[in-house]
Amino acid sequence: MLGEQPLEASGAICVRSARFAVLSLASAHFYCLQHASITFSRLLRNLAHQNFTITASDARRAASPA
Questions:
Q1: What is the pTM of this model?
Q2: Range list of H helices, the chain
Q3: Residue 65, SS3?
Q4: Is 3 helix (H, G, I), strand (E, B) or coil?
Q5: What is d(CA 14, CA 8) in angstroms, rounded to the nearest whole number?
Q6: From residue 66, how far is each of 46, 55, 63 by CA, in Å?
Q7: What is the pLDDT of residues 7-58, one digit of tens each?
């Protein structure tokens, strides 16, 4: 019986370690997705701003007498 206790204890530690690893991976994955989403929205905002700026400058050029 004494020989079984360390095996059970090591099994419990292994399960806790596996849970911790899964939770760590899940939180890291969520952080990466959140960061990618923020980066993508910034990229879209910058592209929209650039397109607006280009369109406005083109309109000014077209409206000014040559």
A1: 0.42
A2: 4-63
A3: coil
A4: coil
A5: 10
A6: 31, 18, 9
A7: 566 667 777 788 888 888 888 888 888 888 888 888 888 877 766 666 777 7
